[in-house]
Write a structure and sequence with these properties.
The protein has 312 residues and is α/β, with parallel strands linked by helices. 49% of the residues lie in helices and 11% in strands. It has twelve helices and eight strands. Strands 1, 2, 3, 4, 5, 6, 7 and 8 form an eight-stranded parallel sheet that branches.
């Protein structure tokens, strides 16, 4: 696509601003964040406590510090769930806010006042935990289906002192996790290697595609903020995900180091519900779905179809 003059101008302004304010990174970097945890829901293979311990063990093994965005009703409202969240902060990870019950701000039935109360209610639970940071991540990465909601939430976050914890490297780990659980529920002794390989391939594809998009939009590598979830697939294979990034030559940085980059201060005019900050930036600059790439717009459909062809 050949951009129009206004598009070229805006692209240059955004790229120049970030190039001036942030040094060029010598290697691509990424920070890890996990939403919706800690969850007390039952899964095959591992108990909630074992899942939590496995994820923390993988992070500790690689000396990686991450962020946990707590949806309190998934577990932290109970003593045993709150203990799991406390373990993250106790091991040096950030603990932050992802609402009480994970409502969708884009639904007509979710009011601005209700959503803001969800944030405040969750904060009363997580703010006393070690590692707490006043960061908020929108559920489903959706910032509101009306100007009243989106502008109201931006004003609310500013007034309350929250950082909008944007995501740039979005993944569909949740979709592959659903497939993993489905397979294990049918056959607890199933061979999981095809799912592991599909998951690692998915993470690699998304990482490279979002890196290419950041270079296109910003003229440089930015420290990516990756979204995953507190779930079984990461309890089993987070170690492999981190190892793969290292083999790719990527540096894993802390969430605070990533958020220090000025790209995370941008507020795209055209927010895309449920998508990466980079895609929202691309939309603001006039890029189409075809320009951005269909593989960044699906929910792991490519990998799920490949697994289906293997009989899973």
């Amino acid at each position: 696509m050949t951009p129009s003059f206004p598009l070229r101008w805006l692209h240059g302004v955004l790229a120049a601003a970030c190039l001036v304010l942030a040094p060029q990174l010598h290697a691509q970097s990424v920070a890890l964040s996990f939403d919706d945890g800690p969850t007390l829901a039952a899964t095959p293979r591992l108990t909630p406590q074992a899942r939590n311990e496995a994820m923390l063990a993988a992070l500790a093994k690689h000396k990686v510090k991450a962020a946990l965005f707590v949806t309190a009703a998934n577990g932290a409202v109970k003593p045993e769930g709150l203990a799991l969240a406390r373990a993250w902060g106790g091991q040096g990870h950030v603990v932050a806010n992802h609402t009480m019950t994970h409502p969708d701000l884009n639904k007509a039935t979710t009011t601005l006042a209700q959503y803001q109360q969800e944030v405040l209610d969750c904060d009363r639970i997580v703010s006393a935990l070690p590692g707490y940071q006043k960061w908020f991540r929108f559920t489903y990465l959706r910032e509101g289906n009306t100007p009243e909601k989106s502008e109201g939430m931006r004003a609310f976050l500013r007034e309350q002192g929250y950082r909008n914890a944007y995501v740039t490297l979005d993944t569909s780990d949740w979709r592959l996790n659903d497939k993993l659980v489905e397979v294990l529920e049918k056959n607890p002794k199933a061979d999981l290697e095809p799912i592991r390989q599909a998951y690692l391939s998915h993470i690699r594809q998304r990482a490279l595609a979002y890196r290419a998009l950041s270079q296109r939009l910003q003229g440089r590598d930015i420290p990516q903020m990756m979204l995953m979830h507190h779930n079984l697939i990461n309890a089993l294979w987070l170690d492999d995900v981190i190892r793969q990034f290292k083999e790719m030559g990527w540096t894993i940085v802390t969430p605070a180091e990533a958020f220090a980059d000025p790209v995370y201060q941008l507020e795209p005019q055209r927010k895309v519900p449920g998508q990466s900050l980079l895609i929202s930036m691309g939309r603001s600059l006039g890029l189409t779905t075809q320009d951005i790439g269909l593989r960044l717009m699906d929910d792991g459909d490519f990998e799920i179809e490949a697994l289906r062809r293997q009989g899973l």
